[in-house]
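Extended Data, panel c. Modelled sequence:
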Amino acid sequence: MPHCTKCGTAIQADAAFCGKCGAAQAGVPVPNAAAPVAGAQPHMAENVAGALCYVLGWITGLIFFLIDKRPYVRFHAAQSIVVFGIVSIVGIFLGRLYGFNTFDGGMGGMSTGHKLWHLLELVLWILLIIKAYQGERFRLPFAADLADSIFGKS
């Protein structure tokens, strides 16, 4: 039976540490907490990252475009930037056109056209999140082509 190299107490053959003094034992591999766990993934799943590109519109699209280099995620990030960038600009324009200020509170002063624009925006947002989560590279006709020309083909 082996003994502790520090205090001499009898220990088991496969013991990494002494039960009495806590000293590490020579020749026994000590598990490293920083070592990756077998099967662990360094990134979140591509479909989850793709869906998250749309959650806060162009903001999360920009974040994912800058931090994630996988082609699937970059495609959805670039499309999110273009789609919701255009949606934001048109929404601001419609608000100015109809004299509606977002900071006045509520949608009471909005025209029917402006309300329909926001409904279209909501439907588009939900559709893009679902399609990305399903793993589909769903391309909006104008926006995806514009995103490819601005950010490069992913």
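Residues 46-148 form one domain. This feature is highlighted in the accompanying rendering.
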